[in-house]
Write a structure and sequence with these properties.
Number of strands: 0
Mean pLDDT: 89
Shape: rod-shaped
Structural class: mainly alpha
Strand content: under 5%
Largest sheet: none
Radius of gyration: 23 Å
Helix content: over 70%
Low-confidence stretches: none
């Protein structure tokens, strides 16, 4: 096996590992973002309900479920 072929195989394996790590990282960050958005929406709806804006709070929570 030549050194060029060895380097090519090693580079391809490294790229596959990096691609998998990048994909898993982006999925994890997207889940974190989605979680914080849900928390923020729930908190906003809670504040609206406390101020007496029940229909707006209901609309906000129902619209967030459609996404």
């Amino acid at each position: 096996m030549s050194i060029g072929l060895t380097l090519k195989v090693a580079y391809r394996e490294t790229c596959e590992i990096c691609d998998k790590i990048a994909h898993l990282t982006s999925v994890a960050f997207q889940k974190i973002i989605d979680t914080f958005e849900a928390i923020g929406t729930a908190r906003a709806a809670s504040q609206l309900a406390q101020m007496g804006y029940y229909e707006e709070a209901k609309y906000l929570m129902l619209e967030s479920k459609k996404k």
